[in-house]
Every structure is written in structure tokens, then in C-alpha cells.
Amino acid sequence: MAASELLVVILNHTNEELNIEAESPSLDHGHWMDMPDSRPPQEILAGESGMLRCQSSHRVVGFETNNKVTFSWNIPYVGPNKYDCCCPRDAFNIKTLGGRGNQAVVVFVFEPVSGSDAGLDDATHCGFLEGGFFPILEPRAAPDAPDGYTPARVPCPKTRPAIRQATSLSTEETSWLELRDNSTFPALEEFLTRANIGGIDIEAYLNGIVSNGTTLPRIGIAISSGGYRAMINGAGAIAAFDNRTTGSTGKGQLGGILQATTYLSGLSGGSWVVGSLYVQNFTTVESIIYGSNVFLNSLWQLDDSIFEGPNDLSVTQYYRELYQDVQGKVEAGYNKSITDYWGRSLSYQLVNASDGGP
To answer: Which stretches make up the PLA2c domain (predicted)?
Structure first.
């Protein structure tokens, strides 16, 4: 049986227990299934499928036929593992289902393509933990990005970029500002109306600016440097300015300023909160601090020392992952410094507590 098509179904972040009830995850066929006290196999037969509970995730980076997909999983009794491969988009299928919790149900199915022969037969064992299970897959060192933390060499663009005199905004940014104004204008109008400033007709004032062709006032928020102190202070300000925060649109509150903002930036510690929110699809500060989403709640574990890592990882495992990430950069011929380890450590607090994210 040729193992030339890979179907991976990952149910991220759910506490659902595996059982044989109809509403539970199931397979059309399968040779093994882990039970609460069983140890999952460290090898899977070609063409074999199975199901297990573990922490898992996947990430696809690429375009058209040049896709690089990374699978990350943490199997009980075995430990964490990451595998990166490169193959055409139509050579595999990934389905991600929703859920909450610290555990995931992950299903690996190795299916043959009719009439194909990749040199594997029914008796061939595929190394599950060694990343050698598909001839069509090209192994990579990367856990998340195309080359992980390791710097990658890429070809220069066919059209070399030209250096321009920055006496004005670029054409692209100018076009973007026109689109952004469509969102900030109503938000600014709503905020100023709610502020109830005496003696000013807010609607007439703003409409007058637009009708006269005058540039609409644009708001920029900058969060200063200062490590964790700047991060927490900036998070508080963003939460206060965000109309999605509970109670932020009451009398005397500042909710809506964020929605009326054109630019948001941060320096050093200030960039930690900005970057963390952006990576999480610009979620709210409130959802990270008080929300019920277990993944978001695992971020910003600032009560835990950055030298010990997140709750879900042992100190040994945490430092092993940091070392392996940075070592890839060294093996590629680049110098390393303490900043490499510091940056990767921060990513566990700000991006993804389970593996540091991209």
C-alpha cells in the first residue's frame, strides 16, 4: 500500500474524551485508538490510521504549489514533536475543528492514492517520531515558519525595489488611509457624540471637514518602552480605549478611541502587547485576562518566571525547545546571542504558550 496522500484532522484545544459514542470523533477505519491509560504507538504502518489525545497544532505557510506545512504534537509518555514538510497543496488535506481546553484530539490517516506506488508496501513501517513517513514530503528543520527560527536565504525579487525620497507618503499607504478613514470616521463621530462636548455639533463639525476636502483628523497611539511595566500599562490603555471592553462605553469612559485610531505602534515592551494582540487576530485585552478561551488564557502568564517557562511545559522541556530553535540558526552559519534566547522565551508568553508560535 503506497502512502502517498496524507489526511490530518486536528481538533484543537478540546477536553473531549475519546469514546465510541456517535457524536465523538470517529474514523472510517482505524487500527489503533488510545485509551486513558494506554501508550500510543511510536510507529504507524503505511496506510494506517488512528486517534489519540494530545496537544497539537498545525501551520501552513506558502502559496500555490509551494506549501510548507508544520505539524506539532505532544504525545503522552512520548513528549513533544514537530515535523515540517513541503508538498503540493493537493497532496494533503487538513481539517481543523473548533473546541476549547488544553487537550486536543488528533487523527492521523495515511491513505494511498489509487494506482500510485511510492515504494511502500503494507508491511512498511513509517517512523512516526522521525518525520520520515512520506517520500513525497521534503523534510525541513522548521517548526512553524518555512525555516523555523533559522534565517533563510531567498532569491531577490525580479524587479529590484528602488529607493525613493520620502518627502510624502507612499502611494500604497495613501490608498490604505482612504480605506481606513471609512472605519475611523464613524467611530470618531460616535465617540465624540457620546462625550457630549457642550457647544459643538459633532456631526456638523465632522461632515464640514469632509465636505470641504480637509483631511480628517487621524489618531495614532504609541506605547513606550519599559519591559513588562510598559506592556501592562499599554494593555490597560488599549483596554480602556477599546469599545469591546465591558463598560468602556459608559459615561466618562474612553471606549471607541481605539476603533477611531489609524496607527497603533509600540517600542520594546510596548511592542510586546501590540504584537501579541496582532498575532491573536487583534483580540481584546479583556479576552486574554478574563475570557473563557483556554488558549488565550494561557498567554501572558506573567506570574510565572520567564526563566521557568509556561505551566504546561517542564523546565527541562522548555530549555530544550529554546536550545533547539536557536541551534538551527547556528547550524545555518549565523551567530547567536542572548537576544535569541530572550526573544524565543518571550514568544511563549506573548504568542503561543505551548511552543512559542511562529
So the answer is: 155-358
